[in-house]
Amino acid sequence: MTMLQGFQIALHALRLNPLRSFLTMLGIVIGVASIVTVFAIGSGAQLRLQEQIRSIGANVLMITPGAVYQGGVRLKDGSKLTMTEGDVQAILEQIPEIQAAAGSLAGTAQVIHEGKNWNTTINGTTTGHFMVRDWQLASGRYFSGGEESGAGKVVILGSTVARELFAAGDDPIGAQIRIMKVPLEVVGVLDRKGPAQDDVAFVPLSTAKLRFLGSASNINRDSVAYIIAKVAADGQMAGARSEIESLLRQRHRVPAGQEDDFKVQDPAAAMEAQQGAIRTVALLLVAIASVSLLVGGISIMNVMIVSVTERTREIGIRRALGGRMRDIRLQFLCEALVLCLLGGAIGVAGGITLSMTVARMAGWVTSIDGEAIGLALAFSIATGLIFGFYPAHKASRLSPIEALKTE
Amino acid sequence: MSALPLISLRSVSRTYRTDGVAVTAVRNVSFDIAQGEIVAVMGPSGSGKSTLMNMIGLLDLPSEGAVHLEGANVAELSEDRRSSLRARSIGFVFQSYNLLARHNAIENVALPLVYCGVSRKERVVRAEQSLQAVGMLHRAHHFPRQLSGGEQQRVAIARALIASPLIVLADEPTGALDSRTGAEILALFAALNRTGQTIVMITHDPGIATQCRRTIRLHDGELVSDETVAELLPRRSVAS
Ligand SMILES: Nc1ncnc2c1ncn2[C@@H]1O[C@H](COP(=O)(O)OP(=O)(O)O)[C@@H](O)[C@H]1O
Ligand SMILES: [Mg+2]
Q1: Distance from Cα A407 to the centre of ligand 2, integer Å
Q2: Given this model, what pLDDT does residue B1 score?
């Protein structure tokens, strides 16, 4: 008897009792669906993080405001803009490992082009920002020196904003858009970097200060919200970081023993750590889902043992008509395998549906990869073989004469 | 007959041991069966007829002595080889038909060929021929429960014949049938034998035994007589 015939016999037997077959494989269905879903959510979260890490660029340090003391009271981190354009200049000039650096001020506003408008992040910065983040232009140009120093009325759009404001085939370069009633000329459109990054519009830092934040009196004319800096090589990250720290302590006159009023972070490293944590949690959840698979396997074994007992006479007949022990074993093993594979397939479909539902309802990014599906199916096959073997072996060992005598 | 006997039993005994108690179901039995014979095995209930047939059919092995099929000692064959021989060379017919309830007639008839490695297409063709031979082709797609006892037994005989076996072994094939249907089944066996099919048939109905040329009688596991009549008693179906 061939494997194919084994599967045909198995399908025939399972079709006779569809409800029982389905209930038998339910444990496998649930186990596989859980594994696929957990993988989809886990790898979706990882993809998102990876995208963020990529979008920051390689070897980037980020300097944000830190602890601020006012009359001995520690204020919330970032409640005061402690960094300045002077700091950016000093970092660029005095620390040799730094290739590029830029300060930014950011807020959200409505951008308007003819009939269309879109709410997005407005980032006031310098061309250095794009150097730090290795962010290329899809078309147009970066800011000119004159525009940077003279508060030029120009804007560089992220690809999402360009798509939202301009019809396909409409060239944004040279067009006029308005932000907070200020007309600006689009001089550049950036390459795509990822959905979370592309929803942005860049203006020169001086423009942001003069035209958008001009009336805001709480901001020092020289302030920036954060600084990003690019380090030349991976191995120089730690050195550059401590040099920036001592430079800024000195410039900000932080007394010895007091906490810095700034923080230097390596966002990629932080995210990588986060990624590791996600992986750990996902593995834990997969382990829990595997328990369901184990329970499913035991349920299949249980039903198979009952089935062998119920069909003892059939086994006797098959043996008398020339079925070898291995044919009987193959027949019942195929039944267990079909149950597990069918359960696995239903579970994969269920898991895909579930993770897509989660993605839609919770807004999470999920990603279904072939690897997870392959793994889940491999688990199902292994379950079928492991838990199907004993009943199949038992069936093959029955004495044909005894089996023929049973009712 | 100068040729090698199809089946030969030499001092065959079969002892069952249950809970330390030994029951000898067959004791020191020897006989040969030649190609083309039809043999009735008679004896009271418990005399060892089924045990004997299981050994001839390679389902069981003697405790002592030897069973030879076409000269080969079956005890020396592997279990797999004996299974293959059952598929190709032995056709079983049981008192209780033993059709698979969840398969229709043609699937039941084709079953031995599954274990002979015959392709699906050829299985169907041969199963149809076999059903035709027992007059059951019109019931090919009926399930056992939709058939009468006599019809089920005809399907079972078609199944026994499908692989063109060396020998058909029937264990009280009419035991569950009324006398008229039983007579029809018997006529079917007689007709098969006239085409050269070797048949061994267990029965405790002396009327049936008289229609077989040779009768072996068992009592308490021992062979008490082995008679061959020169000419059969007047039989109902004369055509030959
Ligand atoms: N598996 C077995 N275990 C123990 N005793 C058995 C077994 N099979 C048959 N016997 C005994 O062997 C004897 C012959 O049985 P059997 O061959 O079935 O007789 P028959 O077919 O002539 O009625 C009986 O006494 C029966 O109880
Ligand atoms: Mg009997």
Answers
A1: 15
A2: 47
Answer whether A203's CB lies under 8 Å from A123's CB: yes
Residue ranges per structural domain of chain B? 38-50+78-238
Cα–Cα distance for residue pair B140/B134, rounded to 1 Å:
11
Distance from CA of A332 to the nearest CA of B (A): 15
The matching CATH number, chosen from 3.40.50.300, 3.40.1350.10, 2.40.70.10, 3.40.50.1440, for B38-50+78-238 is: 3.40.50.300
Strands A154-157 and A182-190: parallel
Check pLDDT > 60 for residue B234.
Answer: no
Would you call B116 an interface residue with chain A, using a CB distance cutoff of 8 Å?
yes
ipTM over 0.95: no
Strand pairing of A182-190 and A176-179?
Answer: antiparallel
B70-96 per-position pLDDT tens digit: 999 999 999 999 999 999 999 999 999
- Between CA A322 and CA A130 the distance in angstroms is 78
Helix (H, G, I), strand (E, B) or coil at A219: coil
The residue type at A68: V
Residue that is written with structure tokens 């000692």 in the block: B73
Neighbours of A186 (CB within 10 A): 24
Cα B27–chain centre separation = 21
The full set of domain ranges for chain A reads 3-52+272-405, 67-260
Does residue A160 contact residue A111 with C-beta atoms inside 8 Å?
no
Q: How far apart are CA B218 and CA B214, in angstroms?
A: 13
CB atoms within 10 A of CB A238: 10
Q: What is the rounded average pLDDT of the residues A202-228?
A: 80
The Cα-based distances of B179 to B150, B156, B174 in angstroms read 11, 18, 8
Which pLDDT tens digit goes with each residue over A173-194?
999 999 988 999 999 999 988 7
| Inter-chain CB proximity A321 and B86 less than 8 Å | yes
Q: From the list A5, A323, A404, which residue is nearest B98 (CB)?
A: A404
Average pLDDT over residues B193-219: 90
Q: What are phi and psi of A76, to 5 degrees?
A: -60, 140
Question: Hey, which residues 120-159 in chain B have their CB within 8 Å of chain A?
Answer: 159
pLDDT of residue A276: 82
pTM: 0.74
Residue A337 near residue A10 (C-beta atoms within 8 A): yes
Distance from CA of B59 to the nearest CA of A (A): 7
Give the SS3 label for residue A257: coil
Listed range (A52-56, B82-86, B94-98, B212-216) with the worst mean pLDDT: A52-56
Q: Each residue of A87-113: pLDDT tens digit?
A: 999 999 999 999 999 999 988 899 999
Q: Is the CB of B45 under 6 A from ligand 1?
A: yes
CB within 5 A of ion ligand 2: which residues? B 50
